[in-house]
Every structure is written in C-alpha cells, then in structure tokens.
Amino acid sequence: xxxxxxxxxxxxxxxxxxxxxxxxxxxxxxxxxxxxxxxxxxxxxxxxxxxxxxxxxxxxxxxxxxx
Length: 67
Fold this sequence. Notes:
mainly alpha, 43% helix
C-alpha cells in the first residue's frame, strides 16, 4: 500500500493536513514546496521553478484556496 501524504476530505491515515480544509493559496503551497514544511522535504532539488509554480497553482485550485 502506498502512503498518501495528504488525505482527501473524510479520510484518515495520512501524514499531512487535509488540504481541502486548509485551502492554501499558491504562495503558501509554493513556499512549502521550496522550503519544506514539517515532515515534507524541499523539492527545489528535483523540481524546476516552473514546475513548482505549476504544482502550487494546481494544489491551490484543487483544494479551493484559489479560484
């Protein structure tokens, strides 16, 4: 069974917060991806700045943090 870092709303057993409840904006997601946060490592060694921006935009929109 693979580990899911962030649970979907109504589920449990993952490491990170429920992003659907937290609703982070793009800046917050981007900062976490660049610097790491808690148990989450930084992704700057494996993702380009463009990839970080795209992922931050996706997570923010999917979680309701950005429209």
